[in-house]
């Protein structure tokens, strides 16, 4: 850049030069290049804003609000759009323009101006620290406090919720919340301790009810907690300091926990009591209350850009056997989903995750409509192979393992409703069909229940897992593999419930009449051994592990459990013979199983190599005064002598 040459150019301009002489060519350039118009607005408008006095800025803010409320902006929401460009310029202004937070929330979520709006809202908070993104002391200039701090917090938390940034949303409430119990409940929910989070919230609500607060919440249908379980911080809490917004958050936390715990009957009753239409619709279709759903849809006021109601109406139309209406709702919902996709920020995965899940539901809705049309057509018997192929495809198309448990529950619940329609239709055609095809709906229902139960158990939702597994017993016919999976999941749940382990052992013992392959039998015996080990029945646990490895010598998980059993005995009693038995079992598990479970035991195996090769234990506490258990060889059974020390691997 040559400053002297540019100054000479400016001196050479005629003195009669007018502003129009500059604006006319710039206007021509702006009409030809949209990116230039966007750049000039972002660069120039903050400078013009800084030249205005406070009164002019207030008048300009009112004019900007009127401009942003115009309906014609909705016709051009694709990036780049005028509203986003305006918000980008406003986000760089100093002092900060003061606009209504509810309007900013609407503009940010509708016109893909999320980051610009969040920047404006953050700088409107009195507690917001000076930003380092803006240079100089001007970054410390703040607008007069003309908006309510609560409305700014509400707008920001709603935007974070729409973006899928749950941690940021709860972080706002950590700053805003006044009740220590609120912070505890949010932390429990963030760490997926759903039952404890629900109990914590319910204790807060119970305290408010017993404290005679004027705007107290109705008691939820959950077991009343003893007074001793109410946190001390809550007991010392004065009733007058709890804001209504924070108590609304309690309801939200309780509902979120209840959804993950699969308590949809409780949620439906609560929604009807509080007249929450959306929650009524969510709960009604989960448990198959279609009449309740129809009543709620008739009373719901649907906005033009709401996606969820069209999916719900499609569900109801499918149950009523109206494929034409299903197709209409499907097309409208896909259009709205694509429009929402374009309004999401480009670099955010969390923001699009919920939309991807909605697309999955739409695909399932379309396929379900095709399935119902086939099973109710005059050629239903001839199309049974296509229905079976589609159900097999559903088994291959599952959510990711890391996705929320409610996503799994939603998908499996819908498929079970469709399979119930298949059962209803095929039961009327049983005299015309192959017996192997009559019960394909029941087989898929049992498989879906087992899939959800497994995910629920892995997420620590033991009660939800056991409750769902009980539904399999009501099915008239299930596949033997599903019966085995149900039994295995039940036994695995009882590992978390020591008081009920005897019931699990009885269930496993009663499976002797089931036609199981050796691998399945060994898996159940391995679980039986773990249950006995938790009950301190050492000899019986050892015998069960030995039988499991003898039944299926290549079952790496059984060998790993037996190795951990001997490892625990070695740590408890310090006998190096136990370490050698654990060493042999660890090696067999590594040879039989290449998964991460066996590989994770490799460091422990190396440590035991050192312990087994010494005359005295390494870093082991002294043995207790009671006598040690019987020698290991006396506890082996059914060919378990392969694990005697010295046996080659």
What would you say this structure looks like, in words?
The protein is mostly helical. The longest helix is centred in the middle third of the chain and has 27 residues. It has 33 helices and no strands. α2 packs across α3 and α17 runs parallel beside α19. The C terminus is likely disordered.
Keywords:
649 residues; 33 helices; 0% strand; mainly alpha; disordered C terminus
Give a brief rundown of this model:
The protein has 649 residues and is mainly α.
Proportion of helical residues? 55-70%
Low-confidence stretches: 129-145, 212-240, 615-649
Strand segment tally:
0
Shape: globular
- Rounded to the nearest angstrom, the distance between the terminal CA atoms is 78 Å
Number of helices: 33
Largest sheet: none
Percent strand: under 5%
Helix and strand arrangement:
Layout: H1 3-11, H2 19-32, H3 34-51, H4 54-68, H5 82-90, H6 101-110, H7 114-124, H8 149-162, H9 166-176, H10 180-190, H11 194-210, H12 232-235, H13 244-260, H14 264-274, H15 277-286, H16 290-299, H17 308-319, H18 323-342, H19 349-375, H20 384-396, H21 405-428, H22 435-438, H23 440-458, H24 462-469, H25 480-494, H26 501-509, H27 518-534, H28 538-551, H29 556-573, H30 576-592, H31 596-599, H32 602-612, H33 632-635
Helix pairs in contact: 2-3, 3-5, 6-7, 6-8, 7-8, 8-9, 9-10, 10-11, 10-13, 11-13, 14-15, 15-16, 16-17, 17-18, 17-19, 18-19, 19-21, 21-23, 23-24, 23-25, 24-25, 25-26, 25-27, 26-27, 27-28, 27-29, 28-29, 29-30, 30-32
């Amino acid at each position: 850049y040559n400053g002297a040459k540019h100054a000479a150019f400016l001196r050479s301009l005629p003195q009669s030069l007018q502003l129009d002489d500059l604006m006319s060519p710039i206007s021509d350039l702006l009409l030809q290049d949209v990116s230039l118009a966007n750049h000039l607005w972002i660069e120039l408008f903050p400078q013009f804003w800084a030249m205005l006095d406070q009164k002019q800025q207030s008048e300009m803010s009112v004019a900007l609000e009127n401009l942003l409320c115009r309906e014609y902006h909705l016709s051009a929401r694709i990036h780049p759009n005028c509203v986003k460009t305006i918000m980008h310029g406003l986000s760089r202004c100093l002092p900060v323009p003061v606009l209504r937070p509810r309007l900013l929330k609407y503009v940010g979520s509708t016109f893909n101006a999320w980051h610009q709006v969040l920047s404006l809202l953050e700088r409107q908070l009195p507690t917001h620290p000076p930003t380092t993104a803006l240079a100089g002391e001007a970054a410390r200039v703040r607008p007069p406090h003309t908006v309510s701090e609560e409305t700014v917090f509400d707008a920001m938390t709603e935007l974070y919720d729409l973006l899928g940034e749950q941690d940021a949303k709860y972080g706002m409430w950590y700053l805003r919340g006044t009740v220590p119990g609120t912070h505890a409940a949010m932390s429990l929910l963030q760490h997926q301790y759903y039952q404890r989070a629900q109990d914590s919230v319910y204790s807060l609500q119970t305290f408010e009810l017993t404290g005679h607060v004027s705007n107290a919440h109705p008691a939820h249908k959950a077991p009343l907690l003893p007074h001793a379980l109410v946190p001390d911080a809550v007991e010392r809490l004065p009733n007058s300091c709890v804001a209504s917004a924070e108590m609304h958050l309690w309801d939200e936390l309780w509902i979120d926990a209840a959804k993950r715990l699969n308590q949809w009957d409780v949620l439906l009753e609560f929604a009807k009591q509080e007249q929450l239409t959306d929650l009524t619709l969510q709960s009604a279709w989960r448990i198959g209350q279609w009449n309740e759903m129809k009543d709620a849809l008739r009373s719901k006021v649907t906005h033009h850009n709401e996606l969820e109601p069209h999916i719900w109406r499609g569900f109801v139309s499918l149950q009523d056997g109206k494929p034409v209406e299903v197709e209409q709702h499907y097309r409208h919902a896909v259009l709205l989903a694509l429009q929402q996709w374009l309004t999401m920020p480009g670099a955010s995965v969390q923001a699009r995750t919920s939309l991807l899940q909605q697309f999955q539901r739409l695909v399932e809705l379309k396929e379900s409509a095709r399935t119902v049309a086939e099973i109710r057509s005059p050629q239903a018997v001839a199309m049974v192979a296509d229905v079976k192929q589609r159900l097999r495809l559903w088994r291959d198309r599952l959510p990711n393992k890391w996705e929320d448990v409610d996503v799994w529950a939603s998908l499996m619940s819908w498929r079970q409703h469709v399979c119930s329609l298949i059962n209803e239709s095929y039961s009327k055609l049983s005299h015309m069909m192959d017996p192997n095809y009559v019960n394909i709906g029941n087989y898929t229902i049992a498989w879906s229940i087992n899939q959800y139960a497994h995910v629920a158990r892995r997420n620590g939702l033991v009660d939800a897992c056991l409750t769902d597994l009980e539904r399999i017993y009501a099915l008239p016919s299930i596949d033997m593999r599903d019966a085995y999976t149900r039994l295995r999941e039940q036994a695995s749940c009882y590992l978390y419930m020591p008081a009920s382990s005897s019931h699990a052992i009885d269930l496993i013992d009663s499976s002797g009449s089931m036609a199981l392959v050796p691998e399945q039998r060994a898996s159940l015996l391995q679980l039986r051994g773990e249950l006995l080990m938790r009950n301190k029945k050492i000899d019986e646990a050892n015998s069960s592990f030995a039988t499991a490895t003898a039944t299926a010598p290549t079952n790496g998980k059984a060998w790993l459990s037996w190795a951990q059993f001997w490892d625990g005995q070695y740590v408890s009693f310090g006998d190096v013979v136990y370490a050698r038995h654990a060493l042999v079992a660890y090696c067999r598990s590594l040879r039989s199983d290449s998964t991460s479970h066996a590989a994770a035991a490799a460091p422990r195996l190396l440590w035991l190599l050192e312990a087994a090769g010494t005359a005295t234990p390494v870093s082991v506490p002294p043995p207790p005064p009671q006598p040690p258990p019987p020698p290991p060889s006396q506890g082996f059974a059914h060919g378990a002598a392969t694990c005697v020390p010295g046996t080659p691997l």
